[in-house]
Design goal:
CATH class of the largest domain: Alpha Beta
CATH architecture of the largest domain: 3-Layer(aba) Sandwich
Number of strands: 13
Distance between the termini: 31 Å
Radius of gyration: 19 Å
Length: 332
């Protein structure tokens, strides 16, 4: 019996039109364009503005674009997995809301929260639904409206994050293309260094938590950087080793776009030159769950069937991982 793998057959992305540049941030906090660029590699980020707009609205654009490319209707989708840390509401899930907005009447769905690693965790999860043989079309969405949980008086975090969303369609493949392997990790002790303090069951919202600005992202930057550099590079090297891949075998590294120095360290550990690394952090910043699919979307025209691709991420929790896949189609 031929082995079924889960292959990406379409991809699309969306970033909102409004820009927040480093020069704009100079007016908000004590920072400079040079300081931000040197330490992060970021020049600008996109911000979702407008009354009543949420993460799912960016997902609508991404998924509708994906469906148009593939030439299928929303009613053909079996499952939606939505990786996000900024859901529209605590409940119902943004996957549920998205299904309603796009008319995916035959799909079930749920959100997956793993901070910046959520898209990777969702890809691995989705692949198992496809491999089971029961589901034929699974949409994985990665997106965040990070501006909704960023304190624009905190220069440690407001310079990093932007808003954006990407989506991929997974379908069965019998040619050996698609998701081949994954190494996924968590370490809950990292919660002390990157988290949102209030808003959950541990510390529900009160006037006091709002006044104390505890509903925004908190990050101990030096500690997070140290863990991210080591762990993201480690899993990327590990997935190469256990699949007997050399640097020459890898067509592309798709790294989480959190910090250019972390990206460079991961590529160096894998023995890859910059020419094989997807980088758009300068224009989008860290869109959390959106970074990986947005990279694939932007580079889609350069991808070839059979390309060996490694995706790697690190996020709050701590969460981290790497996914190895073979690209399944030549772009038109």
């Amino acid at each position: 019996m031929t082995k079924i793998t889960a292959a990406i057959t379409a991809i699309h992305g969306y970033v909102p039109p409004d820009l927040l540049t480093n020069k704009d941030l100079e007016l908000l906090v004590d920072t400079t364009d040079e300081w931000i660029t040197t330490r992060t590699g970021i020049k600008e980020r996109h911000i979702l503005k407008g009354e009543g707009l949420a993460t799912s609205d960016m997902a609508v654009e991404a998924v509708n674009g994906l469906l148009k490319k593939r030439g299928i209707g929303a009613e053909e989708i079996d499952l939606i997995i939505f990786a996000t840390v900024t859901p529209d509401m605590v409940f119902p899930s943004s996957a549920c809301i998205l299904a309603d907005k796009i008319g995916a009447k035959n799909a079930f769905g749920y959100d997956l929260a793993a901070a910046c690693s959520g898209f990777l965790f969702s890809l691995e999860t989705a692949s198992k639904f496809i491999e089971s043989g029961k589901y034929k079309k699974v949409v994985v969405v990665g997106g965040d409206k990070m501006s909704s949980i960023i304190d624009y008086t905190d220069r440690n975090t407001c310079i990093i994050f932007g808003d954006g969303c990407g989506a991929v369609l997974l379908e069965p493949n019998e040619e050996g293309m698609g998701i081949i392997d994954a190494v996924l990790k968590v370490d809950g002790s990292g919660r002390h260094f990157l988290h949102q303090k209030a808003g959950g069951s541990l510390k529900p919202p009160t006037h006091e938590t709002v006044d104390a600005r505890e509903h925004f992202v908190y990050q101990d930057g030096k500690t997070v950087f140290k863990f991210a550099v080591t762990n993201m590079a480690d899993v990327s090297a590990q997935i190469m080793e256990r699949n007997h891949l050399s640097a020459e075998d890898i067509a592309w590294l798709v790294p989480h776009q959190a910090n250019l120095r972390i990206i460079d360290a991961t590529a160096e550990r894998m023995g890859l030159t910059r020419e094989k690394v997807m980088i758009n952090i300068d224009r989008f910043g860290n869109t959390t769950n959106g970074t990986l699919p947005l990279c694939l979307w932007e580079w889609e025209s350069r991808l070839k069937k059979g390309d060996n691709i490694v995706l790697a991420a690190f996020g709050g929790g701590f969460t981290w991982g790497a996914v190895y896949l073979k690209w399944a189609y030549d772009s038109q």
